[in-house]
Design goal:
17% strand; 2 domains; Rossmann fold; alpha/beta; single chain; Pyruvate-ferredoxin Oxidoreductase, domain 3; seven-stranded mixed β-sheet
């Protein structure tokens, strides 16, 4: 008698869909194993297989396409006593292919049931990585240009310690699921099924033909002896116990006592190579040295070595709930690229906003207080403009003062870099 199926949410699949048989097979397996429902979790993917979590009276987590194994990993590591079962279709199999390989290598005690019906059944019958080359599917000829993937062979090669394959019509389906769940390590069981809603409309498929397909595949052996090794969670906790020395948490002591310090927002607009992110870190540490709360957001191209670079810093005596810049008190415009990345902020600047603009940089019209500086005339190299700009801020006591800046530079730089930076800062103070 069913113990796990949710009577208020019975399985609803297309007539003849094999997923219903697999749902009932999993229910029988859970019942035969007498697993406690409150210690069992079904993690599902997107697609028809993603409905599984609603059909069972267990804990459940429904994730995004291809990522089910990542959630399952977190659950199992957080609570090793949980029985974690993942359901995934052949669509999620390839979308989350790297996660499947990682799970095979890791050997965490999870059970992955792959419901392979050879197509993306829920979204139109497009081909998947398991679609036979000769099949007629909803994505024209694309499957004819590729060969189908054999996940069981790949899983063995990637290090899975238990691999099985069977038809969704197998008389011993529940027994095979039981064996996969009982295995202490990562187990995969691929079930082959029929998608009556999409696939079989143009591709004749029967339980007998599924059996024939299984005979033609390399035979998985269940327990893969050559891959046997300690379960990942066990090994992880064993190694963690051996570790007795841990790095000390970085702390920044309050060195400076300020008077009535107000909430400050700083935006640094530059380009790659100008050390914009470093400058943002220094401004942030200057605030921390004064006992303030700080948030930093950086924005730069993925290529890193070219394009705009932006740093947004908030320094406040109060807790910072939202790190977005709403009303900058300081804007450092050091390159046209950075200005273009944040050009919309200039229209809303207040008259008391301090805008430091490098001489050759163009900025949109603004109500802010604009101060122009020619770093080239001061013989300051371009890669030092951001640091020099902090010197201007400190000199005019905008968001930071000189004492705060010096403490931050000492914290962020080694001795030689600190001395070089101070040479640049002194040029600004002496200008």
């Amino acid at each position: 008698m069913s113990r796990f199926l949710n009577k208020n949410r019975p399985p609803v699949y297309c007539p003849g869909c094999t997923h219903e048989k697999i749902t009932k097979g999993l229910d029988k397996a859970l019942t035969d194993l007498n697993l406690p429902a409150n210690q069992t979790v079904i993690v599902s993917d997107i697609g028809c297989s993603g409905l599984f979590d609603t059909f069972f009276n267990t804990h459940a987590l429904h994730g995004i396409h291809g990522r089910a194994l990542t959630y399952a990993t977190g659950l199992k590591l957080a609570d090793p006593d949980l029985n974690v079962i993942v359901t995934m279709g052949d669509g999620g199999l390839i979308i989350g292919g790297t996660h499947v390989l990682a799970a095979c290598r890791r050997n965490l005690d999870l059970t992955l049931i792959i419901l392979n019906n050879f197509n993306f059944g829920m979204t139109g019958g497009q081909y998947s990585v398991t679609t036979p080359t000769e099949a007629v599917v909803g994505s024209e000829f694309l499957n004819q240009a590729e060969i189908p993937l054999d996940i069981c062979t790949i899983a063995q090669s990637a290090g899975a310690t238990y691999v099985d394959r069977c038809s969704g019509y197998d008389a011993d389906l529940s027994g095979k699921i039981c064996k996969a769940i009982e295995h202490h390590g990562f187990s995969i069981i691929e079930t082959l099924g029929i998608c009556t809603g999409r696939y079989t409309k143009k591709n004749p498929l029967t339980p007998a033909s599924l059996d024939q397909m299984i005979k033609e595949f390399p035979e998985p052996s269940g327990r893969i002896e050559k891959n046997q090794r300690p379960e990942y969670g066990d090994r992880y906790r064993e190694l963690a116990k051996e570790k007795t020395i841990f790095p000390e948490a970085a702390t920044i002591e309050k060195k400076i006592h300020l008077g009535n310090y107000q909430h400050q927002e700083v935006v640094i607009l530059g380009s790659a190579g100008m050390r914009i992110v470093t400058a943002g870190d220094i401004v942030g540490h200057a605030g921390l040295c004064a006992g303030m709360n700080v948030s930093i957001k950086n924005d730069h191209n993925v290529t890193v070595l070219r394009g705009p670079s932006v740093s947004e810093i908030i320094i406040s005596p109060d807790k910072i709930d939202y790190p977005g810049i709403e009303s900058p008190c300081v804007v450092l415009a050091l390159s046209d690229e950075g200005v273009q990345r944040r050009n919309k902020i200039f229209a809303s600047l207040k008259p008391d906003t301090f805008v430091l603009k490098e001489k050759k940089v163009s900025i949109p019209q603004t109500h802010g207080e604009i101060v122009e500086i020619d770093f080239r005339k001061l013989k300051i190299k371009k890669q030092d403009w951001a640091i020099a700009s902090l010197g201007v801020m400190a000199k005019k006591e905008k968001a930071v003062n000189k004492e705060m800046l010096i403490h931050a530079l000492k914290f962020c730089f080694n001795k030689n870099r600190y001395l070089t930076a101070m040479e640049t800062i002194e040029k600004i103070f002496n200008a």
